Amino acid sequence: MTSMSSAHATRRDFLYIATGAVAAVGAAAVAWPLIHQMNPDASTIAAGAPIEIDLTPVAEGQVIKVFWRGKPIFINHRSKKEIDAARNVNVASLPDPQADADRVKQGHEQWLVLIGICTHLGCIPIAHQGEYDGFFCPCHGSVYDTSGRIRQGPAPANLPLPPYAFVSDTKIKIG
Fold it and tell me: 167 — phi, psi (to 5°)?
């Protein structure tokens, strides 16, 4: 008769540990692709990534259009005349009251950055059109001023502002 001591590892103990280790590695090998497939792909990440725009080539009075997160962004290099027209408006008379100073960054009043989607039904307005020389939506007749504020037509709100910041005097970061 042989006696077994609990202090010594047996062959059976080794098999239990080895089987457990193989099971743990197998579970990790199965779980990794399952968890990894839930991450967004590179194009999705890039679609929401911030973009930087160099404003140096944009002439005064020019409006450029860039895309961020699939939305058109209008960047308007406003002239002194356009800035004055936007500031000399009785804010209380507007359908969606907002001062021009609240729609631009302080010290960079010449740059107006807007999401170029009409707040009525999602059409794309045309720049430097309409009674106020701002933006005009030809689909249903909404008219925006040089600050992107609704002045006439069925649109219920001003053109929205994207999140942006000036990286330098000639470069902005949207997003």
Answer: -80, -40
